Amino acid sequence: MSQITIDTIQRTVSENNKILRKNGQVPCIMYGEFLENSIPIKIKSSELIKLLRDNSKGSIIKLSVNDTIKNCVVKNVQKDSVTGELLHVDFQCVNENEIIKMKIPVNYSGLNNLQLNRLVLDTFLSEIEMQGNVEKIPESIKIDVSQMNFDDKIFAKDIELPEEIKLITEPDTLLAVVNGFNQGEEN
């Protein structure tokens, strides 16, 4: 997992979130089993956008708040459904060797090869949930679809996970299926 450090500022719960966003900051919360209380924080919008763009959801991020650094993972990102503006981010503080549940993105490679064969991958789920040691949970799951054929399916149970990691998503959950181009899509 990646090790990124980002500076935060503790905020008061009475601060107006709309004003924070107007001033280029995003309200966030940091919580965890090993924190006495949740810590409301704010992060510069530009830094948070870069952080979320450059790191997968499973990355360990070092958050600096009140002169201490906490290891965290992104647990939830709230965006405006119309504008896509970041509204709020939840961070879970984690300790080394802590067992946690995480939703991890699924990335597919080899899509160009499918297209060469007039096939397309229809995806139904973009992330799967797993449980394990925070240091051993992968940042993402990569699946090579370059050798797949028409009507091949990918189920959650088909994903190879490290021995110490347990799949939480139902094993028979359909992630993706290979289909052919429709006649109407031909040029």
TrEMBL record:
<comment type="function">
    <text>This is one of the proteins that binds to the 5S RNA in the ribosome where it forms part of the central protuberance.</text>
</comment>
<feature type="domain" description="Large ribosomal subunit protein bL25 L25">
    <location>
        <begin position="9"/>
        <end position="91"/>
    </location>
</feature>
<dbReference type="InterPro" id="IPR011035">
    <property type="entry name" value="Ribosomal_bL25/Gln-tRNA_synth"/>
</dbReference>
<dbReference type="GO" id="GO:0005840">
    <property type="term" value="C:ribosome"/>
</dbReference>
<protein>
    <recommendedName>
        <fullName>Large ribosomal subunit protein bL25</fullName>
    </recommendedName>
</protein>
<dbReference type="Pfam" id="PF01386">
    <property type="entry name" value="Ribosomal_L25p"/>
</dbReference>
<keyword id="KW-0687">Ribonucleoprotein</keyword>
<comment type="similarity">
    <text>Belongs to the bacterial ribosomal protein bL25 family. CTC subfamily.</text>
</comment>
<keyword id="KW-0699">rRNA-binding</keyword>
<keyword id="KW-0694">RNA-binding</keyword>
<keyword id="KW-0689">Ribosomal protein</keyword>
<dbReference type="Pfam" id="PF14693">
    <property type="entry name" value="Ribosomal_TL5_C"/>
</dbReference>
<dbReference type="InterPro" id="IPR020057">
    <property type="entry name" value="Ribosomal_bL25_b-dom"/>
</dbReference>
<dbReference type="InterPro" id="IPR001021">
    <property type="entry name" value="Ribosomal_bL25_long"/>
</dbReference>
<comment type="subunit">
    <text>Part of the 50S ribosomal subunit; part of the 5S rRNA/L5/L18/L25 subcomplex. Contacts the 5S rRNA. Binds to the 5S rRNA independently of L5 and L18.</text>
</comment>
<dbReference type="InterPro" id="IPR037121">
    <property type="entry name" value="Ribosomal_bL25_C"/>
</dbReference>
<dbReference type="InterPro" id="IPR020930">
    <property type="entry name" value="Ribosomal_uL5_bac-type"/>
</dbReference>
<dbReference type="InterPro" id="IPR029751">
    <property type="entry name" value="Ribosomal_L25_dom"/>
</dbReference>
<feature type="domain" description="Large ribosomal subunit protein bL25 beta">
    <location>
        <begin position="100"/>
        <end position="179"/>
    </location>
</feature>
<dbReference type="InterPro" id="IPR020056">
    <property type="entry name" value="Rbsml_bL25/Gln-tRNA_synth_N"/>
</dbReference>
